[in-house]
Design a protein that fits this description.
- This protein has 2 domains: 84 residues, no CATH class; 106 residues, no CATH class.
- The chain contains 15 helices and no strands.
Amino acid sequence: AMACNGLSSNFLDIDFEYLMRLEDQSELEQLQQKRLRCIDDLKEFKENLQTILKVSSSTSVLEEKRKRLREFAFHSKGDKTIETWSPSELSQLFATFGLLSDPQSKIRLFDTCNNEEFKRQATSQIFYAQALGRVGRCADAIEVLKRTQYLLSEEEHGESCNYLGDAYLGQYMSCIGLPQKLRELAKSGNLDEKLSDQIKQFHRQFRRSMDKRFSSITPEDVENRANEAKENAVSSYYDH
């Protein structure tokens, strides 16, 4: 039996051969043509079809691969589903999401699967933390990495330290320029959308309560957190 979109349910044997076969723009255009065929009878769509199909080759091919893998991972039916895959199968799927630069799907896979053996593996937790950092959840990434350090081999410890440094660096970067903008805000009272987004990002990176008023964030608080995050980043990068 074949799983969704032609992917074999024999997960480990195929090594995602079908998924990785999509390598050129012509195949992607054929796929898009097929999807648009249902509206060919509408004149305005027919006239603009070529414009619709003019898309970036590398970006579109990569996104199509991500779509296929998400469909396979989260919507496949039959004898192989996320509830029945083995730790080795989950690890392969997890790693392939990484190759496709899809951190959100890595997080979703880790959070939704119930295989405790897979979730306890040090490598699974390290790369889960890396994905958390990639989507701006640096405080969560730091918590995971600190919790797993005692489980790691020497090689894994070095890798974990690098990701821990990256997470602290992400926190530091969320502070850049914010103290001065907060001082200007105190004078003008003009909270524009760009500054509002930066303040929200600061909250996310340090996992502060979003219930607090923006006015409760002082320039000094941001500067102190920035200095601490910078020191922690340097310390983590050198802790091998």
